[in-house]
Batch of 3 targets.
Target 1
Amino acid sequence: MKAGGADAAGLEALETLGLVPGEQVRFRRSDRARWQVGVVACVERDGSLRVTDGNGAARTVPLAWVQVQGRRPAQWEPLADRAQRPSQLHLDFEHRHRRSHQ
């Protein structure tokens, strides 16, 4: 079953990592030195993260090259750090996301 171009397994894998579709992340590409901001779509079958960059292009990025927003504003941390924490952080993001869009 597809939801917005992502299959159910890819969306479930996002949840396991503590991510939700539409969440902002930053990532590095092998051909660029600077971090780029993008939006999470899903986890691909090969385990990489599908991210939409600022130009609207879909990118697949290894998880090791992805950072997520930490608990404090303007603080970024490796995705692996978030994935190792309990799922409470995921719920915290949903709460902050809802509050900022009211």
Target 2
Amino acid sequence: MNIGDAVCTIAAASTFSEPFVIETKYLRPMHRNFAGNTFSDHVALFMAFQQWIKARWHSEEAEQEFCELKALNMQILRMTFEARNQLKVDFKYLFEIQDFVLS
């Protein structure tokens, strides 16, 4: 993972509803924990996405269990994944570089 992955993930996620399943106007403690001590919605979103990817690599069942346990919308995460991948392809094409990295 590099800074380009983080930027593409956050940009892609901003096009959809947030993946956190919330019942009030506030995030649940389990969702706020994704941000650590940063109090950043973007960090929470990115960290939740990264942990979801790890669960997804194991199996679809692990992915579903993770989303249920953490109250995350799996469909939104999947759409974010696809949009992020498309952004990475677009940036690689636009900048004609192998790995998109911001400095």
Target 3
Amino acid sequence: MDQSATKNTAAETVTVITGDMLISDIVETFPQVVDYLIAEYGFHCVSCFVSSFEALEDGARVHGIVGADFLEMVDNANMIATGELIYP
């Protein structure tokens, strides 16, 4: 099964976005997370030419989004991508 489309137990968030996914793939597949990444994290990588060959975790690290902050970003992005969380 593709790592980018796995489902955990019912009590956990469905994982559709992972740190090893290309930023451009996330933008294309889950456009509903773009505003969240930009507004909450200043993650303008979503529109950068580098996004087509840089993974989410690598882009986040460059901008100082690491550790718990990165995990929170990915968790929230997954909830937005799956409709569990509606971002304004």
